[in-house]
Design goal:
476 residues, mainly beta, five-stranded mixed sheet, 46 strands, 46% strand, elongated
């Protein structure tokens, strides 16, 4: 088990000075939820649609990525404790009395589904458009394989309750609940086994980022992490015994929220957590993190939207190299972006041959603004480094490619096998792909050869196309 650190700060911004380090902060802004009722859950997949649910059947939805919110008619008065958005259109809400609701239009209209139970349901989770689970009182576990139209009760009857559930695939899932309840299933929820060494506090939420690494949020300072698939857990020492109600991750970026307006964030898969506080100091019930926007909600209809900003530090060596960023630059003028490098910089060139270069004693910027979908060729006269900070974009954003040569960005947060990363263009339209070291992806007979190995954040790639195509990086 690795060692962990927890930092208490007012402004969550740390700049590291190694090649792959990235610091992160989220700029939070309150949005008008159009309700004063407590919101227990908020869900968002990164598109235009978002939903939030709460007490007495309250549902609000957004069709502009959480900028504005509209009250929906849920058709019920039972409290809606949990929600899950599968995509921009399909979402579910669960709550008191076995309530299960479904929407297929992004939250505007809802239909009630028969759950077969009167037990309160606290959480719901789907792995695709068809397969999902709901959990709640008496360790109730409900299962659907037809997109929530019908539900089967897999288990119920315990003295304890499940508050949170998370599945890695159709078989492996985890549930947490009252008085340290922590169980795992390997058969899609049909049977559950107690695992780990959790404290006896209430455990409210669970999230796994891969087969081994998972997190649990709970009562009285409980923030647990496992690196071995849940067999053993280590607890962070959270100042003030903050109770955490929700935890969520996308890749290595995580957020947890709880009482007193506490917000915990990490950009290192839990290796370091930072504590900040919301302007709303009451109970925060739920949070969701995504590359485009993040959200948290709480009492009195409080709803906040956050824009994620990152500050990666990039080391540049003497000579030529391709550079890219997966973040929109807040001040994208190329002369401003490259300002810290000017003493060691010879020039920067884009795919069209336009350059940032020195003419006499003056720097001339013929490129204009930094384009997040492009890579750039840097020629350095000496070693140096600079930061590329900004709002992260969706890593699956399509990148149009034309016939000929071009420098292309890499949009994923971590390393990835290059054949997997560029799979969408491994066809007759592609001639070759090259990195800064001259390593390549090229075709030998009928076989694509990968000498690049893995793609890396902040590396740009030279691509030669035989014809136009569209590059879409897979989600990691």
């Amino acid at each position: 088990m690795k060692k962990h650190a927890l930092l208490l700060s007012i402004v969550v911004l740390i700049i590291f000075t190694n090649n792959n380090a990235t610091s992160q902060t989220i700029d939070w802004n309150e949005v008008n939820s159009n309700t004063s009722s407590t919101l227990y859950s908020v869900s968002y997949t990164g598109g235009i649609s978002a939903i939030a649910t709460g007490i007495s059947g309250v549902i609000v939805y957004s069709d502009d990525s959480g900028g504005t919110w509209t009250m929906a008619n849920s058709g019920v008065t039972s409290s809606l404790w949990g929600s899950f958005m599968v995509n921009n259109n399909l979402a579910f809400a669960v709550g008191s009395g076995g309530t299960i609701l479904k929407t297929t239009d992004g939250g505007e209209t809802w239909s009630q589904k028969t759950s077969g139970t009167i037990m309160t349901l606290y959480d719901v989770f789907f792995i695709d458009e068809l397969t999902g689970w709901a959990v709640g009182v008496s360790e109730s576990v409900l299962y659907t394989e037809d997109g929530g139209e019908t539900w089967e009760i897999l288990s119920s009857g315990s003295a304890q309750s499940y508050w949170g559930v998370h599945f890695l695939d159709a078989d492996v899932g985890y549930a947490v609940g009252t008085y340290g309840t922590l169980k795992k299933t390997n058969d899609g929820g049909n049977t559950w086994q107690e695992i780990g060494n959790p404290p006896t506090e209430n455990l409210y939420d669970v999230h796994f980022i891969d087969d081994n690494t998972g997190f649990i949020a709970g009562h009285a300072g409980t923030l647990l992490q496992t690196d071995d698939g849940g067999q053993t857990w280590e607890n962070y020492d959270i100042p003030g015994n903050i109770s955490l109600r929700s935890i969520d991750f996308i890749a290595s970026i995580g957020i947890a929220v709880g009482n007193g307006g506490a917000i915990l964030t990490t950009q290192s898969a839990g290796e370091v957590w930072n504590i900040d506080y919301s302007p709303f100091t009451g109970q925060l019930w739920d949070a969701v993190v995504n590359y485009s926007y993040s959200f948290y909600c709480g009492g009195g209809g409080q709803l906040f939207r956050g824009t994620m900003w990152f500050v990666p530090w990039i080391e540049l060596e003497s000579g030529f190299q391709f550079v890219s960023s997966r973040m929109e630059q807040p001040n994208p003028d190329m002369l401003n972006v490259c300002g810290p490098l000017l003493d060691e910089l010879d020039y920067v060139r884009n795919s069209d041959g336009a350059m940032l270069h020195k003419v006499g004693d003056e720097w001339v910027n013929n490129i204009g603004d930094w384009n997040v979908l492009e890579g750039y060729l840097f020629k350095m006269s000496a070693e140096s480094g600079f930061s590329l900070g900004g709002e992260i974009i969706d890593p699956s954003t399509p990148i149009p490619l034309e016939a000929g040569y071009q420098f292309v960005t890499y949009l994923n947060a971590g390393n990835m096998d290059a054949l997997v990363a560029f799979e969408s263009i491994l066809n007759n339209n592609l001639d070759f792909i090259r990195d800064s070291e001259g390593k390549m992806i090229f075709k030998l007979g009928d076989q694509w050869i990968n000498t690049i190995g893995e793609t890396k954040p902040n590396e740009g790639y030279l691509i030669r196309m035989n014809g136009p195509d569209t590059l879409i990086y897979p989600s990691k």
